[in-house]
Amino acid sequence: MRNLELENSLTSGDPIADKNRARFDARGVFAINLVGPPGSGKTTLLEALIRDHHAALAPCVIVNDASGRTDADRVAALGVPMARVTTEGTRNLDASLIASAIDYEFPSTDATLLIENDVEWTAAGNDLGEHIRLAVWSVSAGSDELAKPAAALRRCQILAISQVDLLGECEFDLQRVRHAMARYAPAATVAPVSAATGEGVTELAAKILSLRWA
User: Fold this and answer.
1) Average pLDDT in the chain
2) Of 101 and 130, which is predicted with more confidence?
3) Residue whose C-alpha is closest to residue 149's, from 181, 187, 126
């Protein structure tokens, strides 16, 4: 594992993101921008995908551990290639940071790169050079925000609803979310998942692979 203490770049992300994508394509790496607010369950979902579908995904990870080493340590314990980037207390990854991170310790071919990226729900986040975006939202956070055309949702191909094992204990209207997504992100897949029980994790991995080889 490499720890990359990198500062935020002020350079426009678009041309660098395009170069990142070209590098990923040349190396056979399928890059996923895993976006969502802090506490939405991104790291727990990463752990479940890596633990249960390691052989199929051939995962490697970039972790934006803005507030400390906790998430990076959890991913490192899984024994996958990983780089940790810090963003000086912010949660704004950009393509320049990813360009630096991918120089370190990643497989050259046939890998799935999962970029853990804290993004506020009202912000779309930067283009990092990913192939798809996987947005994550937790049942415990409620469904009201998901009924709005949030910027993070408009640009995602998959919306993972984490903690679905808590549906009976929290006020969360999954059907309302499906209807809302059909309006403002009709091409996106809604994927209910529970890392605690394993529900939906296999289906999510299969969807990721289907997009990779599409």
Assistant:
1) 86
2) 130
3) 181
Q: What's the CA gap between 24 and 36, in Å, rounded? A: 23
Domain that residue 91 falls in: 2-212
User: Under the phi-then-psi rule, with left for phi > 0, alpha for psi from -120 to 50, and beta for the rest, what region is 39?
Assistant: left
CA dihedral 69, 55, 200, 194 (to 10 degrees): -30
169-186 core/surface letters (b: 16 or more CB in 10 A; e: else) = eeebeeeebeebbeeebe
Tell me the pTM.
Answer: 0.89
Give me the number of domains the chain comprises: 1
Q: How far apart are CA 30 and CA 25, in angstroms?
A: 7
Alpha helices in the chain (DSSP H): 13-27, 42-57, 70-76, 95-101, 151-154, 174-184, 201-212
